[in-house]
Amino acid sequence: MLEVLYEDRDIIVVKKPVGVESQSSASFAPDMVSEIRKHIHSHYPQSGETYVGVIHRLDKPVGGVMVYAKTKSTAAALCRQVSSGKMGKVYKAVVCGEIVDNVENFVDYLLKDSKSNVSKIVEKGTAGAKRAELRYFVAGRIGKPEVLTLVEIELSTGRHHQIRVQFAGHGMPLWGDNRYNPEFAGGERRKASLALWAWKLSFVHPRTGKVMTFESEPEGEAFSWFL
């Protein structure tokens, strides 16, 4: 299952498939951390105890590029890049409807409801709310099978369900989103794949200081309509 894009003694960059948890879970289903451990044990049997540091996360229905650390010091350095906004994350998504502005910034305040595992846009100053910012670029438009827009999204922050919540809140819900798009909340459409993909990831290698960039082209029904 594991598709490795790059690996050295400090990091491993992989493509996370849709439907797989990005970190260890309580279920018996495969998750990325477990698969990476299996990979390391298989290819480096003398490596001893395996450390896999989770640096960032993708929702289960989202696929794309992820980096994991193989040492604690590397994990700490990469996490500092995330918290300081120096790790570049670019996503591709298909949204329902036609977007008028080709380039736009969204700045909102999101509040997470842990019980229902959803987030919503709230007023600034709401207790527990966190600032969420992203910038998008329109990359394509089609009118069949329905009016859809392909966007590239640069995240400035990393909030719970951020892209899904912000686009839905601004009247442009993602195709296939059964949490935030009512059109996909029931029936056969609920089975559709979420059209959100972690397309590009950039960071500075903690040991070498080299800027590293990795890409993975999106997969899924909605993305195929733009090929």
Describe the protein's architecture and organization.
A hairpin with an 8-residue loop joins strand 3 (53-54) and strand 4 (63-69). The protein has four helices and eleven strands, in the order E-E-H-E-E-H-E-E-E-E-E-H-E-E-H. It is α+β, with helices and mostly antiparallel strands and 227 residues long. It is 16% helix and 35% strand. Strands 1, 2, 3, 4, 5, 6, 7, 8, 9, 10 and 11 form an eleven-stranded mixed sheet that branches. The longest helix has 12 residues, at 32-43. The model has no long low-confidence stretch (mean pLDDT 93).
Broad shape: globular
Please tell me how large the radius of gyration is.
18 Å
Q: From the helix content, strand content and strand pairing, which structural class follows?
A: alpha+beta
Mean pLDDT: 93
* Main sheet properties: 11 strands, mixed
Q: Approximately how much beta-strand content do the residues carry?
A: 35-45%
Q: Helicity, in percent?
A: 10-25%
Poorly predicted ranges = none
Please tally the helical runs, counting DSSP H or I stretches of 4 or more residues: 4
State the distance separating the first and last CA atoms.
Answer: 25 Å
Number of strands: 11
Order of helices and strands: EEHEEHEEEEEHEEH
How do the helices and strands line up, and which of them pair or pack?
Elements: E1 3-7, E2 11-16, H1 32-43, E3 53-54, E4 63-69, H2 72-83, E5 88-96, E6 103-113, E7 118-122, E8 130-142, E9 148-155, H3 162-169, E10 196-204, E11 211-215, H4 221-224
Task: Provide keyphrases for this structure.
globular; alpha+beta; eleven-stranded mixed β-sheet; 227 residues
